[in-house]
Amino acid sequence: MASPKNLLPDCGLYRTTKPLPEHEDEVPAGLMVYFHNHSDSGLPVVIPPEHNIFNRWHFHGSGLPFRGLSWADSLTKLLPEGFYMLRKPLTFDAGEWPKGTLTQLGYNRNGDPILFIAQVRAQLTENSLFFNDRGVGIKREQLSMLEPLQIFAEPPPDGAHTTGVH
User: Fold this and answer.
1) What is the rounded CA–CA span in Å between residue 48 and residue 61?
2) Which of 16, 47, 89, 110 has a CA positioned 20 to 30 A from the CA of residue 32?
3) Which is nearest to 56 in space by CA: 105, 113, 22?
4) Taking the C-alpha atoms of 52, 15, 13 and 85 in order, what is their torsion angle to the nearest 10 degrees?
5) Residue 5 — φ and ψ, nearest 5°?
6) What is the pLDDT along the chain (166 residues), one digit of tens a residue?
7) What's the whole-model pTM score?
8) 3-state class of 119 per DSSP?
9) Segments making up each domain of the chain, as ranges
């Protein structure tokens, strides 16, 4: 017999499609949440977004536990926030970004995707990229145009391949 954890979605970012029973004000329908299929109590938990720094949401606290497995099934999986390359050009009201553009994927509190374009720092005193805090909203259907990229915050571990997209 499968354990309840095996019946639940994987941990990660999701968008709610129904309010969380007994927590409707804190977790309404249409909210981006971080879902954990486990906790210290053994129950799954959901954590609403707290604040956004550098186009990434932060989730704090132990989360809101719940028992209804059917509610977990109503969650819609979101692509991880992070860095992606456009597989094809993206056209929007103010212009177009060409195929191959480096972007950062973020979301608003409602789980609507936003892309932020990579820019070289204006002063060029260091070799770094900048992602503005204003992006371009895209439709969920357009997420398939994104190719995930591996970006290292520190030097890659010894033996890691670093020449190209992984």
Assistant:
1) 9
2) 89
3) 105
4) -80
5) -60, -40
6) 444 456 788 999 999 999 999 999 999 999 999 999 988 778 899 999 999 999 999 999 889 998 888 899 999 999 999 999 999 999 988 889 999 999 999 999 999 999 999 988 767 677 788 898 899 999 999 999 999 998 877 776 666 554 444 3
7) 0.84
8) strand
9) 4-77, 82-148
